Amino acid sequence: MLIDLHAHSTASDGTDTPGSLIGRAAAAGLDVVAITDHDTISGWTEALVAREREHPELTVVTGTEFSCVHVDPAGRRVNLHLLGYLFDPDHIALRSEREGQRAFRLARAARIVQRMVEDGVPITWEQVDAYAGGGPVGRPHIGRALVAAGVVPDVNAAFAGPLSHTSPYYVSKPNTDVLRMIDLVRDAGGVSVFAHPLARRRGPVVAVDAVAEMAAHGLVGIEADHPDHDDAARAQARGLAADLGLIITGASDYHGTNKSRNDLGVCGTVPEAYEALFDRPTARRPAG
């Protein structure tokens, strides 16, 4: 059984439409795929319709990857991502938080592009917005514009250079406190998993004490198997899961051509973990 619990569409920063994502998941031989766009549920309906009409054999898990921050007692802030699955999309507080994060994401992208344009980087907001295809603009869309302009060879190079957190063009955003987000997902009937917790090439990662605090607050799982985790990181994440009673998940973090090495199914979740993850009275059931 092939299970991939982390994939993105054009509803955020992937390159496949939600419907095409479902088709690609089926073609890749997946049995279960989760659509987890950044801070939005706007791809859910199209994905579910595509599944019902064209690929009823595929199970679709609805989710969102939320932009969060953890602040330790010393005031150190670390940005991180939380995967929320099978929550009620009409939960008022969580919907308000999603809408706020989408607005912040758009404003951030606009400011990054403005800084680049002011510095003579040969891209425009219109080009970046076109890559978003009507969805919310994110850094991968800026990366694609940089590739088209010949500034960098590929999107990965863009994230390692002009879009990195150390770049002069970088703009931070006021992410939601992760403990509050865990509360919101739980209150909306959903299940939360810490996404790529030890992906150090993305920037600073939270300390073990922070993961323990999240687990005590209601975190359900930890994404140990991820393309941005090396063997040591995967082993550390598995150790944390064992120590804290968390469920171990794995996923590709698929973004289409925006992340060429993150193919669907490249990392997966074992069936026992999948069943345990959603064996909760409050969680909505996957489609399929």
- The CATH architecture of the largest domain comes to Alpha-Beta Barrel
Through-space gap between termini: 14 Å
Shape: globular
The CATH homologous superfamily name of the largest domain equals: Metal-dependent hydrolases
How many distinct helices? 10
Task: Tell me the name of the CATH class of the largest domain.
Answer: Alpha Beta
Give the percentage of residues in beta strands.
Answer: 15-25%
Give a short account of the largest sheet: 8 strands, mixed
Q: Rounded to an integer, what's the Rg over CA atoms?
A: 18 Å
- Helicity range of the residues? 25-40%
- Number of structural units classed as domains: 2
Q: What would you call the structural class?
A: alpha/beta
Q: How many individual β-strands? A: 8
Features:
288 residues, alpha/beta, TIM Barrel, 17% strand
Topology:
Blueprint: E1 3-7, H1 18-27, E2 32-38, H2 44-54, E3 59-71, E4 77-85, H3 92-118, H4 125-132, H5 139-148, H6 155-160, E5 176-177, H7 178-187, E6 191-194, H8 208-217, E7 221-225, H9 231-244, E8 247-250, H10 271-277
Helix pairs in contact: 1-2, 4-5
Task: Write up what this structure looks like.
This protein is of the alpha/beta class and 288 residues long. The protein has helices spanning 18-27, 44-54, 92-118, 125-132, 139-148, 155-160, 178-187, 208-217, 231-244, 271-277, and strands spanning 3-7, 32-38, 59-71, 77-85, 176-177, 191-194, 221-225, 247-250. Strand 2, helix 2 and strand 3 form a beta-alpha-beta unit. 39% of the residues lie in helices and 17% in strands. Strands 1, 2, 3, 4, 5, 6, 7 and 8 form an eight-stranded mixed beta sheet that branches. Helix 1 crosses helix 2 (44-54) and helix 4 (125-132) packs across helix 5. The model has no long low-confidence stretch (mean pLDDT 92). The protein has two domains: 3-101 and 172-277, Metal-dependent hydrolases (TIM Barrel, Alpha-Beta Barrel); 109-160, no CATH class.
